[in-house]
Amino acid sequence: MTPRILMLGWELSPHHSGGLGVACRGLLSALSKSFSVTFILPFFPNNRKESLRIISAFSSPVTPPSAYLPSHAAPLPALNSLFSRVREFAKRVSELAENESFDIIHAHDWLTLEAGMRIKRETGKPLVAHIHATEFDRTGGTGVNSHVYAIEQQGMQEADLVIAVSNYTKQLIVKHYGIPPKNITVVHNAVEVKSFPQPDSLRIAEHSPLVAFVGRLTLQKGVDYFLRAAQRVLEFYPNTMFVIAGTGDMELQLVRQAIDLGISQRVIFTGFLSNEEIRSIMEVATVTVMPSVSEPFGIVPLESLVAGTPVIISKQSGVSEVLAHALKVDFWDVEEIAHNIMSVLSYPALHKELAQNGRKNALARTWNNAAQDCINAYHSINIEHMLSEGRSQAQAFYGGLF
Question: Tag placement on the chain: N or C end, fewer CB within 10 Å?
């Protein structure tokens, strides 16, 4: 018997605003090799052909099941009144689910948890809550939105299984949401290797090295610490260029900070970039820095390493659990961030070791690995709760998994 999954997400690469859409695409593609998966999200353009079964809840019907050739990422459509839209999404998905056959509900993050809970109550099917980020990550632990927190907590409490993208996130869920550790399974994210070409020979610019930050310009990502570290580096390496690729609610504040620090001539703010443009930056950068205040995982360092560029990452990140060959710092330690940047700029041997061995680390973590981890996690759900058709069919279901 072929297991069937109803997967709920808020975005999907190449049309995404952050790592959630990239993770959903990687996991969806890998699981679809063995599973029957239907992915429902608010919006997805229907002007491209797609080999996967994707439903846009608020726009087009199911896209044609044929080859899909993405061009580049684009911002998601603006949504007025997010909480209202979340409730509307739950209602619409519930209606769509009536015409779908599935055995598992797999919901990604708080935006889809209401829909997942509603379908579970209506169908009795088990719910998997896949947590890529919590409200404590997004706010840095201050100014937590009580409504979002309530949805997260209720969703994880009602779920039959919680998947966390790292042990870092698992510990946070246990601490702030009261979910027993035994109910949480860790499934680390991965990287889409084919998106990046084989890196050329060692790249380290002697005269104008490039230090990159790629991500949303929000409190969570620690870009302000990146700028303060840049100021320190420029005192010793005045020809260094710093590029900040992304958009977010702190963009204007960060531009002003660069001016106040006296380094605006050495800092480039790119704004929103396509996937191809981001890859181009990673391929020419000397080092990529991810100084996140709280990062459940962090796919950017993996992408950077696959492109052949070494990384400096926050210890407060999930990706640090899978990378042995990366320089790791506390996000708040500006002096240490600057010191590590200068070390990579100064010592070609260090740059080479971090780039080559770090790339091996990144390549070892594929979406097929993540998919298999999810399959193993599904197995942990109570078998009596999995299929209503009876014990023999439930056993047949698990026989199809392994």
Answer: C
Say if residue 401 is exposed, middle or buried (CB neighbours under 10 Å; 0-12, 13-18, 19+): middle
390 versus 224: which is more confidently predicted? 224
CA–CA distance, 106 with 118 (Å, rounded to integer): 13
Q: State the pTM of this model.
A: 0.87
Cα(175)–Cα(71) distance, integer angstroms: 41
DSSP 8-state symbol, 132: S
Q: What is the reported pLDDT for 259?
A: 98
Contacts of 48 (CB under 8 A, 6+ apart): 63, 68, 69, 70
The answer to whether 184 and 198 have CB atoms below 8 angstroms apart is no
Domain boundaries, the chain: 4-190+366-401, 193-363
What are the C-alpha distances in Å from 156 to residues 25, 41, 159, 160, 166?
A: 22, 20, 5, 8, 16
The CATH number assigned to the domain with range 4-190+366-401 reads 3.40.50.2000
Chain segment 317-333, per-residue pLDDT in tens? 999 999 999 999 999 99
Instruction: Report whether pLDDT(62) > 80.
Output: no
Which residues face 185 on adjacent strands? 163
